[in-house]
Specification:
mainly alpha, Arc Repressor Mutant, subunit A, three-stranded antiparallel beta sheet, about 65% helix, about 10% strand
């Protein structure tokens, strides 16, 4: 077993970082947070992610025990995603990371974020 694999499986921080190991998983968790969403709804809300990457990330999050994938026997088929207890427990940590980044982000980044928020508010 490689050293990084050992760390992933033996170290609590390694396991946590593996569960969050992409830029998309925290975003997906924050989008789902307190509701059940279908794949299409997730794809619309996170419109900068490809459907393939979204599918892969959802599968990994399900394997890591962060989300539940609930299939309904309907035509057309319906699948809903929601956070597990483990996934919900992750939310306060993600909020702290957002707070940390907001405190230390560059002025250029702050300007861009404010412009995006202004644009979003104007479109609603």
């Amino acid at each position: 077993m490689k050293k990084n694999e050992m760390m992933k499986y033996n170290c609590p921080l390694g396991k946590a970082m593996s569960a969050l190991g992409s830029k998309w998983k925290p975003i997906i968790a924050l989008v789902i947070k307190d509701r059940k969403l279908r794949f299409g709804e997730l794809a619309v809300r996170i419109n900068v992610i490809s459907r393939k990457v979204l599918t892969d990330q959802l599968r990994e999050m399900e394997t890591d025990g962060l989300i539940i994938r609930e299939e309904f026997k309907e035509i057309p088929p319906r699948v809903e995603y929601s956070l597990t207890e483990k996934g919900l427990a992750l939310l306060p940590i993600l909020y702290l990371l957002e707070e940390w980044e907001s405190k230390y982000q560059s002025p250029e980044c702050k300007k861009m974020q404010m412009a995006l928020e202004k644009e979003k508010a104007a479109s609603t």
